[in-house]
Amino acid sequence: MHNCYKCKTELTDKNWGHGNKIGGIKTNNVNVRYICKPCDNEKSRLYRLKNKKDYGYVYLVSNPAWKGWVKLGKCDSNYKNRLSSYNTSTPKRDFEFRYLLKCKKPRELESLVWKKIEKIAESFNSEWFKVDLQVTIGIMESMKEDK
Ligand SMILES: [Zn+2]
Known about the structure:
Elements: E1 21-22, E2 33-34, H1 37-51, E3 56-62, E4 69-76, H2 79-87, E5 96-103, H3 106-120, E6 123-125, E7 128-130, H4 133-141
Antiparallel strand pairs: 1-2, 3-4, 3-5, 4-7, 6-7
This protein binds zinc ion.
């Protein structure tokens, strides 16, 4: 029987699964380190924390199916993930970013942008705005934090 290399707890079917192995796979299990599930979860949590960026984006996204409309949104630093999540909702995978505004506080900035483009929008529907794209981009550019 093995023990967790971090907390030394004896590993059982309850606190260990085959995924909780580190290294050694290519070396015929020599030098494999085993880790219990709680330690593994904690390790992933710390890893995510360490890799969390202190910035995000406010963006405009559009889809050719809705000409003249853009959607305003915000996301964390991983904007590529956000785009692919839009694209999983359409078979054509044709959502694209029209503008990405990098910022420290996406939530706050999004609501400021929102108020401004609401005023110039011909029409809007939840997060979608019918606006002049260039004018909207101009507004967002003027709101850059690090001008
Ligand atoms: Zn452990």
